[in-house]
Amino acid sequence: MSTYQEFIQQNEDRDGVRFSWNLWPSSRLEATRLVVPVSCLFTPLKERPSLPPVQYEPVLCSRANCKAVLNPLCQVDFRAKIWACNFCFQRNPFPPSYAGISEVNQPAELMPQFSTIEYIVQRGPSAPLIFLYVVDTCLEEEDLQALKESLQMSLSLLPPNALVGLITFGRMVQVHELTCEGIAKSYVFRGTKDLSAKQIQEMLGLTKPAAPGQQGRPVAPQEAAASCRFLQPVHRVDMNLTDLLGELQRDPWPVSQGKRPLRSTGVALSVAVGLLEGAFPNTGARVMLFIGGPPTQGPGMVVGDELKIPIRSWHDIQKDNARHLKKATKYYEALANRSAVNGHSIDIYACALDQTGLLEMKCLSNLTGGHIVMGDSFNTSLFKQTFQRVFSKDYNGDFRMAFGGVMEVKTSREVKVCGAIGPCVSLHSKGSSVSENEMGIGGTNQWKLCSLDPSTTLGVYFEVVNQHNAPVPQGGRGAIQFVTTYQHSNTQKRIRVTTIARNWADAQSQIQHIESSFDQEAAAVLMARLGVFRAESEEGPDVLRWLDRQLIRLCQKFGQFNKEDPASFRLSESLSLYPQFMFHLRRSPFLQVFNNSPDESSYYRHHFVRQDLTQSLIMIQPILYSYSFHGPPEPVLLDSSSILPDRILLMDTFFQLVICHGETIAQWRKAGYQEMPEYENFKQLLQAPLDDAQEILQTRFPMPRYIDTEHGGSQARFLLSKVNPSQTHNNLYAWGQETGAPILTDDVSLQVFMDHLKKLAVSSSS
Amino acid sequence: MASPYGQPQPGYGQPSYAPLDGGYPAPYAPYNGPASAYQPGVPPQGPTRGPPTSAPPPASAPQHYNQYTHSQVDMQNGPPPMTQAPLRPAAAQPYNQGHMNMTGPLASYPQHYGPPPPMQQVTNQMTGMQITSGPPTAAGPGYAPPHSSQPPINTAYTAATQSSYTQGPPPASSAPTQPPPPSGPAASQEYYRGPPPPSQQPFDSSLPPTSQQQLTSSVPPPPSQQTFPPSSFSDPAPRLQAPAVSQPQPPFPTPQPAFPSATPSVSQPGFPGGPTPSAQGSFSPQPTPPSSQPGSFPPPGPPPTSAALGQFITPMAQQQHPPATQPSPYHSGPPPPRAQMPPTSMGQSNHLPPGPQGPPGPPGPPGPMSQPPAQPGMQTGYPPQQNGAFGQVRSPQPGYAGPYPGQPNYGAPAPAPAPAPAAQKRLDPDTIPSPIQVIEDDKAKTTEPFTTGVRGQAPPLVTTTFQVKDQGNASPRFVRCTAYSMPCTSDMAKQSQVPLAAVIKPLATLPPDETPPYVVDHGEAGPVRCNRCKAYMCPYMQFIEGGRRFQCGFCSCVTEVPPQYFQHLDHTGKRVDCYDRPELSLGTYEFLATVDYCKNNKVPEPPAFIFLIDVSYNAVKSGMVNIVCNELKSLLDLLPRENPEMDSVVRVGFVTYNKVLHFYNVKSTLAQPQMLVVSDVSDMFVPLLDGFLVNVNESRQVIESLLEQIPEMFADTRETETVFGPVIQAGLEALKAADCAGKLFVFHTSLPIAEAPGKLKNREDKKLIGTDKEKTQFQPQVGFYNNLAKECVAQGCCVDLFLFPNQYVDVATLGVVPVSTGGSVYKYTYFQAQTDQERFLKDLRRDVQKQVGFDAVMRVRTSTGIRATDFFGSFFMNNTTDVELAGLDCDKAITVEFKHDDKLSEETGALMQCAVLYTSCSGQRRLRIHNMAVNCCSQLADLYRNCETDTIINYFAKYAFRGVANNPTKAVRDTLVNQCAQILACYRKNCASPSSAGQLILPECMKLLPVYLNCVMKSDVLLPGADVSLDDRAYLRQLIGCMDVADTHVFFYPHLLPVMKLESGSLPVALRDSEERLSKGGIYLMETGLHLFLWVGASVQQELLLNIFGTPSFSQIDPNMTSLPVLDNPFSQRLREIIDSFRAQRSRYMKLMVVKQEDRTELIFKHFLVEDKSASGGASYVDFLCHMHKEIRQLLS
Lengths: 766, 1197
Fold this sequence. Notes:
Helix content of chain A: 25-40%
Keywords (chain A): Cytoplasm, Cytoplasmic vesicle, Endoplasmic reticulum, ER-Golgi transport, Membrane, Metal-binding, Protein transport, Transport, Zinc
Membrane topology (chain B): Peripheral membrane protein
Organism (chain A): Crenichthys baileyi (White River springfish)
Number of strands of chain B: 29
Distance between the termini of chain B: 48 Å
Largest sheet of chain A: 8 strands, mixed
Radius of gyration of chain A: 28 Å
Largest interface: A-B, 26 and 28 residues
Helix content of chain B: 40-55%
Strand content of chain B: 5-15%
Number of strands of chain A: 30
Main location (chain A): membrane
Oligomer: heterodimer
Number of helices of chain B: 54
Structural class of chain A: alpha+beta
Largest sheet of chain B: 8 strands, mixed
Number of helices of chain A: 21
Shape of chain A: globular
Keywords (chain B): Cytoplasmic vesicle, Protein transport, Transport
C-alpha cells in the first residue's frame, strides 16, 4: 500500500466501500471540524468474481444486542476456541463445528482477505422471484406494439421458475388470470376508486371467507393456489402470456378531442401492491410499471384529463399551484411504504414526450429499490435495451438483481451511524450503534433494500462520538461491519458481511495525515447525496447555500492562505478537485431545476442516489473526450474552450452520450471525405468516438440518450449546457482566440466561482 | 288411502273392464283419501259394481260429448230429445239455456232470452229462470215449454234458490245420462264390449240409483258437497240431501226439452253447452244426492225423488223409460260415432246423460265421474262402488268443510243460512250460465269478418276466431273495451259501477291474413297533429273550410292544415285522398317519427340485447347454464328484425355472474373471447366498451367459442351466492355507455344474498297470510330496485327475467325492475334440464325473437268528457299521463281505466287515441296510433247490452291484483264481490223487467260475470292454498298485470277439451271446468295459458292409450313425460297438432303434464277445475252464484 490512492482503490475493489476520510479523527469535536462527515459509499453487492460464497452460516457474537459476525478483526484464542467480538468485546466460544480450528486451519472469515465474505444460508423455503407487469394501455398504437414486443421478449429472459403476472390499465384496471385455457380471464377494477388491500384481495378472490367450514390448515395452500391464478411460473404460462400480450388492445374507451386518455395508474399500482401483499408478503417481487402518460383519474391522479390544463411545472410547484401534487405524492408514498414493508420493489418505465408524473411516483422506486427509466417512447432502443438490461446476467449466469435485502450496520463504540442515503427504507431498528444525529434516512442501523443490484450504492454517514477529553488510544482502529442479508436471484438466501477498520488519528497532531486520507471523489459524492437529499425537502437556493458554506468551511480548514489574500489560497492535492466537483454539482440537474421538468429532476436524482462512485462522479461532472488528428483521444476539460472546430467531442453525462463534431469536422463530413479512400484516416477519426460511445452504451444502465450532433446543431445544447462557460457573450475577450466556443449564458464560470471561493475562504469575516 | 286404492286396483287387473272400476275408484281415491271409512264400502262395491260401472262409464263420459255431437251431427239426437222433452221437462231447462243462447246469438242476444223486448231480461231470466221457477216462466214466454220442465226447478229455487238450481241441473243431467245408456252400450261395445250390457242391466235393476248415479256420478257432488257445507251455504248438507232426490229426476226431463227446443243448428251449439251442463248438472246434483242418498235414498232413491218433487218424479219415470227408448234412437246416432272411437264415446256420453235414468250405463259413467255422489240409489251400477266411496268420502268431506269454510270466500257468510230452504235443493250447474255455451254461441254467430267501421260495435269474444277488417277503428286485437257504449254521465257510470276501461295491446301480433299497420312517412314535417291536444291525425279529424283546416275530434280545436298536407274535400266533406291515406281511413297505423321525437334530438342507435347468466352452483347444477349457452348459439340468428331478408342490427353482449360479474369481450378481431371479472359489485361499472356489444355476424366465431366455454369454465364452481342488483346495473351501464336502448335477459337462480346493493333476505312468512300485513309481502323488500327501475326506464333498458329458483327468491322484489321496464318474468321452479328444458327454450326463443319496441312512451288521448285515469301493466309512470315503457313487446297489454270528467254526447260518442312512440328493433323511431270510437248512451240498458265481460274481468283482475300490495287481501276480495253485485243489482233494478226478488237476473252480456269473477277470486293471488308460495303469487300477480283479454280469459277459465274423439279441422267442443264433466274413460286436454294438462281417466280404452302413448296399460304411462310420443297414427298426430296449436296461441310455452287419474299430480290439475270448490277454500260456481244472488238481493232490498 503505497499511496492512499491505491489503498482506496484496493478497498473499493475488495469491499465496495469508499470512505470520505480514511483516517478518522479521534473525537467528535474534531470530526465536526472536518466539515465532510466520516461517511462512506457502500456497494453491498459489489460484484466479486473472486469471492465464492461459503456454504455455512455466519458465527455471531452471542451478545443479544450485538450479534456481530465473526471477522478477521476479531481476536481469536485458538487454543481456548474462543473469539472476542471486536465491537462489544464479548468473548464467544466457537460453535462445535469449528472444533478443528487452529492458526493454520482458519475458517475463511478469519482471513484478512475475506474482510468481505458471503454466506449461503439454508433457511426457510426458497421463494421464487416474482415479476408483475403493470402495463398502461393508453398508448399510441406504435408504442403499445413496441412495448408488447419488449414484454414478450422479456419472458424469455426471466428465470424459468419465476412467477409472472400481468395487470393492464387504462380507464379500468385489469388483473389477468394466466391459467385459463381458451378464454382469457381478467379481473377488472374501476380506475377511480381507491380500494383497500383487503377489498382488493377479496375482489380477486384471494381471501377465502373467514373459515366457515374451512379448517385452518387448508386455507394456506388454497390461498396460494388462488393467487397462482394471477402469478404463474414463466415456463408454464409462457405461451398464454405471449398470446395475452399479443392480443392486448389499446384502451378502448373513446378519448374526445382536447382530453387526455383516462389513465388509472394509481389504482393499478394499488391493485398490484395489494395483490402481492396478499399473496406473497416478504418474498422478492418486482412490480414493473410501464406508463405512457400521467395518471389522469382516481387516486394518485397527477393531472386532469383536460388537455388545456398542462401538467404541473416547477413554476407551478414553486407557486404552490399544483393541485394534485400533494395528494398524489402522499398516495404513492403510502403505496411505496406498503410495498417496501412487504419487500416488493416497483420499477417505473415511463416513456412519453411529456411528463408522466414521476415526481409524484418517484418514491415508489426510491423507497423500494426499483428502477426508473424515462424515455420518449417505448419504440426506442433506449427503452428496449434498457429494459433488456434489467434482466442481464452476471459472470455466474445469475440475474443481476437481488431482493429483500436488509443491510445492518454495526460499529465499534466510538462510532455511531447517523443514516443512509440510497434506495432504501428504514427498518427502525434502534441499536446501540445508532446516532441521535440523523443524516439521510437515520434513526436506525438497519435498512431495507427491497431490490438491489451489484451497483446499488448507499451513502452511509457516521458520527464519531468519542469525547475530546477521552481520546482513542493511538494505533486503535475503528471498525464498521455491514451485514447484508438478501435473496439472491437464484432464490438462495445469502448474507454478505463486510468488516472494515480505519485508524484513528488525532486531528491536532496528525491533520496532515487526515488531509491526505481525504477521498475527495467519495466526499464529493457523499456531500452531493446529502445535498440532493436536502433538495427533496428544501428550497433549491437553500441547498446551494448550504453546499457553498460547507465548501467554504472545508477550504478554510484545509486551505493554505494568507488572510484576506485570495491570491495566496492553495489547496493540497487531495482536495484540489473538490471545489470543481462542487461547481459542477451546483450546475447539475440534481440541484438545479431550471430547464428541467419536475419529472426529469426526480429521474436524475433517483439515479444519482443509487449509482456507485464512478457513475455518480460522471453525473456530477461529465466526462469529455476529444478526438482529433493531433493525437490519440484524450480527456479534456469540461470547458467551452474545449469546443474546437477540428475536434470531435464525446461527452458522457451518464444520462446522455453526446458526440459533437466540430465545425470543420462537420463540414468535412458533409463533404463526404470519409468516403474517399485517401481520407481513410478521417473515416477512422469519425468512427473512433462512435466505438467508444458504443462501449459505454453496452454497459450502462439505464441506457443513456445517445446524441450525435455537430457544432451549431440544435442538439449541441446538451454539450453547451454542461461545459464550464469560460467564454460567454459577457467576456468577449476571448473572441478571436483559438479558444473554442462562447456559451450564451449568464452562469458563472469555474474561474469566477473559484475566485469567489478563494475570496470567501480567506475572508476572516465568514 | 293406499289401502282403498289397492283394492280397487285389483279390479283393474281383472278384465278389461277392470280399468273402469279400478279407474274410478282410483280417481276418487283422492277424495276417499280423507275418508278411510270408504275402503270398506268400496271393496264390496267394487266387485259387484265393477262390471256395471265399467260399461256405463264409457258411456257416460262419451255421453256428454255425444250430446254435443248429436246436436251437431245427428239430427236424430235432436229429435229424440224432443220426444223426450215432454218427458224431461226438467232437463229442458238446462238445454233451454243452451238453446236460448244459441238461438239468441243467432238473432241477437235479446232474442235468445225469449222475451224479445227485455232481451236482457230474458237472458237473465233464462239464467234466472231456473232460479225462480214461477216468475221465469212468466217472464219467458218463449221458454215456456222448457219452463214446464223448469217450473219445478223454479219452484225449487223460489223455495230456496239453491235448491232450485240443484234441481234444475239434476234433471238435465239425468236426461243426458239417460240417452247415454243407449249410446253407452254402443260405446261400451267398443270400449267395453262386455260391460255395456251388464251396465245397463245393473242400472235397470236399480233404475233409480242409476239416475242418481248419474248425478252422483258427476264427481262434483262430492266436492260440491264439500264446498257447500263450508261455503256460505251453511245448509249445504241439508240441501244436498233434498236436492239429491229431486235432482236426479229433474235432470232427465230437462235435458230433453232442451233438445227439442233447440233447433237443430241451434241445438248444436246449445247442446254442447247444454249437454255438458246437463251432464254436469247431473253431476252436481249428484253430489247433493249422494249426501242425501246415503241416508235414505239408495233404496228409495227413485221414490224419494219423486216424492221430493212430484213433477220430477214423473219425469224420472218417464225418463227412465225414454232412456230405454232413447237408447235406440241415440244408438243409431251413436253407432256411427262409435265407429270412430272418440265420437262414439262422445255421442254416447251425450245420450247417456239424457238417458241416464233408464240406462244405468250412463250413471255408470257418471258414477266414475262423480263417484262420490254415486249415491246408493242413484248409481245403481256404479253406485255401489261409488256410493260407498262417496258416502264415505262425504263424511270426510264434512271434515274438510271445516278446514275450508266457504264463507271466508264470500264477504258475508250470513246469506248462506237464509237460503236454507233452498239449500235443500242445489243449483244444477247445467242450469246456470255456462261459459262454454256462451263461447260456442259466439263462435257460431261469428261468420263474417269483423269490420271496425261501426262505432260502438262489440267485437266477437276472444275465444272466437275471426278476421278483422280495419275500417277506422283499431282492431280488437289491439284495443278491447269493457263497454262499447259508455254512459254519457259520470252519474250513470257510478250507478252502474261497470268499469270503463280498455285493454290495449299496442304491438299485438296480427294473424297472417291481416295486414300489419301501414307506416306513414310525412317527411321532415312529421305527423300532423291537433294544435291543442296534440292528437295525431286520424279519421276523427273533421276537415272544414274546404280542407284548409281540420277540427279535432278530441278537443274540438281547429287547426290549420299544413300546406304540404292540404287536399280538397269531396261533396261529402271528406278529403279526396281519404282512402289513400291510412291515417284518414284506418284505426291503426304508424308514423315515422322525426328527430324531434328522439331522445336528445338524436337518431337512436340500434338497440342491444345483453344476456346475463347466473353461473352459481345451482345454475350450473340444474343444467340451466348449459342449456342457455347452447341455445344462444342458434338463437342469435333469430334476433328481431323488420325485414326478414336483412341481418338484424341488434347488437349482443354477454355477462355471467355469481357473486361477481364476468363481462366478455367478443370483439371480432379476437381469436378467443376475453373474460373481464368485476368484483366491485358495490359500485358497478362496465369494464369495457369496444367488444362488449357486437354484431353477431361479425363476431360469430368468438361468440360461439365463448358459449362453448362458459359451461366448462363454471362446471366446477362452488359459489352459491349471487348478486342481482349489480347485474341489472351492469346491463344498464353497458347500454348507457353504448348510448342505446336495449333489453337485458337475466337468467337467475337464487335469492341475492351476497353483499351488494339490492341484497335481499328471506322474508317469506306464511303466517302473514290473511293478516293485514300480507300486503307487505307483495311490496318490494328494498327501495333499491325502484330507483334502479327508474334509471332503466330513462335509458330504455328493458329487463326480462328468467328465474330458476329452488327456493324463495322474492319475486315480488326481483320483479320490480322487469315490471317497471315493460319486461317479463319467467319462472321455472325446481328447474330440471330434462323436463323443463323445452318449455324454457321455447319461452326464451320466443322472447328473443318477438317484435319489440324500445324506449317507448304511450299516451292515451280521449275526447272531452272522459279521461284516462289509471293504467295497469308493466311500465313506469313519471307523471299521470305518460306511460313509459323501456321495452314494449307484442305480448304486453296495458289496461287503461277511464273516468268521466264531463258529459259525453250520444251523438259524437267517445273517442280515444292511443299513441305509442317507440324505437323499432331496427333503430327506427316510430309512432303507432290506435284509434277507437265507442258509443255513448243515456240509457243504462245500452250500457249493459254492449259490455264485454272478458275485458271487465281483465280489468277486475288487474285492479284486484294490484290492490293486494296495498290492501288486505280480504278487503280486495270483498271489493270485487261488492262491485260485481252492484253492477248486477243496478241492472236488475234499472233494466230488467219486474220479477220476483228471488229471481236472479243477469244481463246477457254479463251472465258469465259471476263465474269468471269467482275464478278471479279463487286465483292463487287472492286465495292462496297452503302449498302456494309467496313467489308463485307474486309471479302470477305481475304476470296477470300485463296480460291481454285472451290471456286472462284462459287463465281464469281454463280451456278443457275432451280428446277422446278427434277430427281433423275442428276441435271438439270444450267442457266446463268441473270434475263432474270428466269421465273415467276419457282423456282431456286442459289449457290454462301457463299449463297444459292431459288428464287420463283410469278406464281409458287400451286402444286410445295405444294411440296416444304407445302403451296399452294405464299404469305404464309415464306421468313425467312432457311431450307425447310421436306415433304414426292419425289420432296421435291430431292430438299433437292440437297441443301445438294451443301452444302457438300463447306467448308462453305450456309444458305438457300428463295427469293420471288418481295420481298425485291430479291435485294440481283439479286446482284448475274452477267451477268446483277449490282445495284452498274457493267457492264452487254454484255456491258463488248463490252468494252473488244473495248479495244482489241485499242491495236491492
